C-alpha cells in the first residue's frame, strides 16, 4: 500500500523478509486508522444515505386516501425528494375492488402491488389469508407510539403485518340548536353529563322528542347493518369472538343486553328509520328545520359534515363523549381506521417500507396528512401539536380535535373486527333486522351465533 510506504519508508539495512513483515504490520495499522475515521462518520449518516432504496413501487388505495390526502398533502412529493431513486406509482381502486383484487394477487404470488391500503375492518382477514410481508422488526421502534388497540388486528402468531395510519375514535355529535329548543344544556361538558350513560341518553332523546317532535338519531330497522351496535359493544371491550380461545360470543349475555338496550329507542319511536349513507340520512343532518339531534360516530364524520353532508350548519354542532355501556366502560369506541401493508412477494421491500415509514411513522408527515384529511393519526406523538388545540368554527369554537385525541387514548381492545368479520357482521346484521321485526334479541343472536359456529367447523 503506497500510503504506508510514504508515511513509513523502510530502512535500507532491512533484508527482504524483515521489510515484508514490517509492511504487513504497517498495512494493518493503516487499515485500522482508516476504519477508525470512517465508521464514526458513517454512524451519523441518514439511513437512506447509507443504503438508499431504489427502483419502483406501486401503491394501491382509494381516491380519498391517495389523491385527496397522500398526494394533496405533499407527502408523496416529499418522499420523492427524500428518496429520488424510488419511483412511486399510485393506482386508485375503490375499497371493494382492493378486497377482491389484492387477495387474488397474493394467492397468485404476484409481486405487484407493493404497498396496499387496507381498512381496519378488513385487516385481520387479509392477514389471516397469508402472503403479507412480516413487519415485526420494522415497526418495533413505533409500537409504543401507536394506539394500543390498533395492533391486535395487525398481528398473527406474534408477528405484525401492518402499520396503522389513522384511527376512528367514536364520539357523540349533537345539534346545539335542537338541544336549546328542547330546553336542554348546549355546552359540551353539560351535554356530556346528561348522556354519560345509555339510560341518560335515552332520557335526553325522550325530552327532545317531547319538546320538539324531532328524532334523536337515525337507526334503520329493515336494512340495519350493525354499525351502532358494534360501537356499543366495542366500548365495553366486547365483540363477536373470544380473543384467547376464538370461541364465538355473538350470543353472549352481554351482547344480548346491548342489543336490547338499543331496541328501547325503537320501542319509544325516538329514532328515524333513514338508512345511513343515503340522501334522506344526509338531509337530516343538513336540515335547519327538521334535523336529527345527535349522531354517534367516529371522528372522520367531522370532515364529512363540513365538506359535503352539512356545510350549511356551521356553528350549530357540538361534540362530547358517547354514553357508557350498560356496565360502565370507557365511553370510547372505534369505528374504521386504516393501515398500510406490504405484499410479501414484492420485488422491492426496502423501498416499500421506506414509503410507509416516511408517511406514517414521522410525526411531521402524519400531521400533514391530518391537516388535509381530518383523519386522526394513530401515531400518538402527533397529539401535542398545536393543530389539536385549534378552535373549530363549525363546532362553535370548540376544540374538537382535543376531544378526539382524549377519546382515542381510552379505546379498549375489542373483538369486532377479525379474520371472519365479513361473515360475522353479515349474520349479526340480519339478527338485528329480525329483532327489529319482532324476534327476541336472544333468539336472533343465538341463530346468528349458530350459523357462524357451523360455518367455522
- The average pLDDT value, as a whole number, equals 91
Largest sheet: 6 strands, mixed
How much β-strand is present in the residues? 5-15%
Helix content: 40-55%
The side-by-side strand order for the widest beta sheet comes to: 2-1-3-12-6-13
CATH first level of the largest domain: Alpha Beta
Please tally the helical runs, counting DSSP H or I stretches of 4 or more residues. Answer: 20
Give the total of beta strands: 13
Q: At the third CATH level, what is the topology name of the largest domain? A: D-Maltodextrin-Binding Protein, domain 2
The end-to-end distance, rounded to whole angstroms, is: 72 Å
Choose one word for the global shape.
globular
Number of domains: 2
From the 3D coordinates, which CATH architecture of the largest domain would you assign?
A: 3-Layer(aba) Sandwich
Helix/sheet category: alpha/beta
What do these coordinates show?
- The chain is of the alpha/beta class.
- The chain has two domains: 52-166 and 337-382, Periplasmic binding protein-like II (D-Maltodextrin-Binding Protein, domain 2, 3-Layer(aba) Sandwich), CATH 3.40.190; 170-333 and 393-456, D-Maltodextrin-Binding Protein, domain 2, CATH 3.40.190.
- The protein has 20 helices and 13 strands.
- It has helices spanning 2-7, 16-43, 47-50, 66-71, 75-82, 95-108, 120-129, 136-139, 176-181, 188-194, 198-212, 227-234, 253-267, 279-286, 301-309, 349-360, 363-373, 400-409, 421-436, 441-456, and strands at residues 55-61, 86-92, 115-119, 155-156, 159-160, 163-167, 170-175, 217-218, 271-272, 294-298, 317-320, 338-342, 376-377.
- Strands 2-1-3-12-6-13 form a six-stranded mixed sheet, sandwiched between helices.
- A hairpin with a 2-residue loop joins β4 and β5.
- The radius of gyration is 28 Å and the shape is globular.
- Mean pLDDT is 91; it is low at 1-49.
